[in-house]
Design goal:
heterodimer; A: 117 residues; mainly beta; seven-stranded mixed beta sheet; B: 113 residues; six-stranded mixed beta sheet; four-stranded antiparallel beta sheet
């Protein structure tokens, strides 16, 4: 199954600044997904990133706030722009594909724990 | 649109006791159902999934879940838990041709010695 490296694992940022989160996969994947997990909440899909096209954002998320890059089939970045304390969350990237034991589903990175002060 | 309800935010249990984590879903079409586990400071790992066929699904680490269409439920069970099972468990549902899941709020399983 795919192995995902996500950086940084955690960060504390000042409000008004921006943070770029990187997601590196050890194999080529068509679609990559970015999720947000707010404290005590479930995972919410932010956007789907396909290589060579604009990311597709879910309701409530916009490109100006969460710009995404997908320069090739193994890498993507998510930027959290002009941050406020409400952006404090865990951000996870995910890819679709084969899993261990012949399963098919989604593999997740270990997440980026963002605290905005 | 589909939705998922995990009825318990936290489930404390003693080691070697059985456990059931409850999950109910809402959808007007056929569904695919998943359970994911998130250990502290780690990403999500797929425990098991139901796509079709047998309604009793066995997953990793001794967990199993049963799809009950009439009750729109997909409860997760383990007959004897270990301390190492302490984690956050997420139920998820997807529909149609995409497996992109909608997640429940999660249930924190706390196993006491």
């Amino acid at each position: 199954s795919a192995v995902i490296s996500q950086k940084p694992s955690r960060d504390i940022c000042q409000r008004g600044t921006s943070l770029t989160i990187q997601c590196q996969v050890d194999s080529q994947v068509t679609m990559m997904f970015w999720y947000r997990q707010q404290p005590g909440q479930s995972l919410t899909l932010i956007a789907t990133a396909n290589q060579g096209s604009e990311a597709t954002y879910e309701s409530g998320f916009v490109i100006d706030k969460f710009p995404i890059s997908r320069p090739n089939l193994t890498f993507s970045t998510l930027t959290v722009s002009n941050m406020s304390p409400e952006d404090s969350s865990i951000y996870l990237c995910s890819v679709e594909g084969a899993l261990q034991g012949g399963n098919y589903g989604y593999t997740f990175g270990s997440g980026t724990r963002l605290t905005v002060v | 649109a589909q939705s998922v309800t995990q009825l318990d935010s936290q489930v404390p249990v003693f080691e070697e006791a059985p456990v059931e984590l409850r999950c109910n879903y809402s959808s007007s079409v056929s569904v695919y159902l998943f359970w994911y586990v998130q250990y502290p400071n780690q990403g999500l790992q797929l425990l098991l999934k139901y796509l079709s066929g047998s309604t009793l699904v066995k997953g990793i680490n001794g967990f199993e879940a049963e799809f009950n269409k009439s009750q729109t439920s997909f409860h997760l069970r383990k007959p004897s838990v270990h301390i190492s099972d302490t984690a956050e468990y997420f139920c998820a549902v997807s529909t149609g041709g995409s497996y992109i899941p909608t997640f429940g709020r999660g249930t924190s399983l706390i196993v006491h010695p």
